[in-house]
Design brief:
The structure is a homodimer.
Chain A: H1 12-33, H2 40-47, H3 51-57, H4 61-84, H5 90-107, H6 109-116, H7 133-149, H8 156-176, H9 185-196
Helix pairs in contact in A: 1-2, 1-4, 2-3, 4-5, 5-7, 5-8, 5-9, 7-8, 8-9
The structure holds a DNA duplex (30 and 30 nucleotides).
Keywords (chains A, B): DNA-binding, Transcription, Transcription regulation
Protein name (chains A, B): DNA-binding transcriptional repressor AcrR
InterPro entries (chains A, B): Homeodomain-like_sf, HTH-type_TetR-like_transc_reg, HTH_TetR, Tet_transcr_reg_TetR-rel_C_sf
Amino acid sequence: MARTAGRPTRSKAEIQEFRSKIGKHALEIYRVEGFGAVSIRRLAKEVGCAPMTIYAHFEGKTDILRFLWADVLRDMSHDIEKKLKSVVDARERLRAAAQAFVDYWIDHPDHFRLVFMSNDVTRADVSAFIMDEDTLAHFLMFSGFIREVHPEEHDVKMSTDTLISGLIGIALCMNTMPDYPWADAASMTNQLLSSIST
Amino acid sequence: MARTAGRPTRSKAEIQEFRSKIGKHALEIYRVEGFGAVSIRRLAKEVGCAPMTIYAHFEGKTDILRFLWADVLRDMSHDIEKKLKSVVDARERLRAAAQAFVDYWIDHPDHFRLVFMSNDVTRADVSAFIMDEDTLAHFLMFSGFIREVHPEEHDVKMSTDTLISGLIGIALCMNTMPDYPWADAASMTNQLLSSIST
DNA sequence: TTAATATTTGGTACGCGTTCTATATTATTA
DNA sequence: TAATAATATAGAACGCGTACCAAATATTAA
């Protein structure tokens, strides 16, 4: 189809640039003042555009908050790596990683809320938790740990998925139901790990 | 201390009555029009009081939404019971219950969001997920199932907690990250169960 | 340049949760 | 009855997410 007259559609690069400008500023606000301070109106004002312009580039606020996930997950990964430095045994590395994972989310409840509980209840539709490969890598590191412990394991993927969702579940429960006397996180993590250690 | 003059404090019964009146009406709205339709302003208008009066009885909107949890959990329990009717073997009952639990939350994503993801991200404080005993019972039924399968099990509580949080985690992951190719829920549930079957 | 089209902007609007203040209402004791 | 204290109310205000719309602006093909 031949190009007609008129202003051309924004290039992918332009769109990307604007989105990341907004995203970076959102990150800055959140780091200094917390999530509550991140608002579309404020973002627009401080970045120098109209609020509606943001809606031309993002689906909504949740779409902006996704930009913060990467930062949080990176922080989490660093935290885990730090704790793993002195651990050599493969089995113990897996255990320590799982434990560090849970601990991170328990120690940073606001981060947990941002990443795992940021879907608006008022929305009926299931808004997708879209992740790029870099982001996913922060979760899939567990695949590597599992493979180290069980090189013969036939279904590493299922073990990984079960472990990850289980660990997230532990964090969710301890975060959102702090008054219920849960068994301690370490014990639950260990028991969960026992399910994938054949 | 002697009573002084002045209007006496509301009795517990009065407080309870008002709270349940609001709660019941919220339930009605939500059943007909969904969660998005439940708002404090509307609640006040339809129940015949000022919006501020509600704030005298509830901490905030989340505090009201808690009234809907009981309803959702009851619904979930009924669903599980129905599916368990024809299952006699204890081990299979546990498995079927766990599966039905996960399935329920996957089939009713809006209910899942209400119960497990209704904490406002903007709030820094961890608002407690307070449950009464009736509500808790809907979760603790798993203790019974586990005990039936493993009468000798020394730490039923830990197994129960690990199972519940793990199942919730599976539901959370599949609900909030539907685009990620998770292993199927049944497989993950089974693997999770293997961790408590010693 | 002109016409066509994409995008941005500003303004207005709705309903929301929440907070504040000032005023009224109520039920009790003195 | 009068004073008093608990409670309820109305009203305004703030900032929010989101939607709609008309006007302005930018960028291209003809």
